[in-house]
Design a protein that fits this description.
Radius of gyration: 16 Å
Shape: globular
Number of domains: 1
Order of helices and strands: HEEHEHEEH
Number of strands: 5
Helix content: 25-40%
Bound molecules: zinc ion
């Protein structure tokens, strides 16, 4: 079991409440549980995101980038990503949690730093309630050790 900092505990508790709130809202509107992401900025504020699915796959936006875009909207490009929570609905406990995709790993690294924390939460719907049986912790430098940097030619 991973150990968590006080900020990590804070965003995990926030995420659990928000997942239940959003899933109840979706359920009331005949929606299904979805993948959410929550981002804590270096200023300590938390931003929400959900995966945005369209009928053209390249128009889809992952929850992580949605949450980061919300951070940029409220705090401008000066904000940095300190912690990202990725919360994925699963039918049963999975051996491996869903990790951010390659594009999101890049964006998290670009708007965060090597030590930005990635917390993966598996959640399960049980009789109209939601439980959180597995939480993993990673650092973006482990998931994306050699970040892409656009080359500036002389
Ligand atoms: Zn992604």
């Amino acid at each position: 079991m991973a150990t968590f900092t006080s900020d990590e505990k804070k965003i995990i508790e926030y995420a659990k409440k928000a997942i239940v709130k959003y899933n109840k809202l979706r359920k009331a509107n005949l929606g299904i549980d979805t993948l959410y992401a929550f981002v804590m900025s270096d200023g300590g504020k938390i931003y929400d995101g959900a995966c945005f699915e369209t009928n053209i796959s390249h128009s889809n936006i992952c929850a992580e980038r949605h949450a980061i875009a919300n951070m940029i909207l409220k705090e401008t490009y000066k904000a940095k990503v300190k912690i990202v929570v990725v919360a994925d609905p699963v039918p049963d406990i999975q051996k491996h949690s869903t990790l951010p995709c390659g594009t999101c790993r890049h964006v998290i690294r670009e708007f965060g730093g090597p030590d930005t924390t990635i917390i993966c939460i598996q959640y399960i719907q049980r009789k109209g309630d939601w439980i959180f049986p597995k939480i993993e912790k990673h650092k973006i430098k482990e998931l994306y050790p050699q970040p892409y940097t656009p080359v500036k030619w002389d």
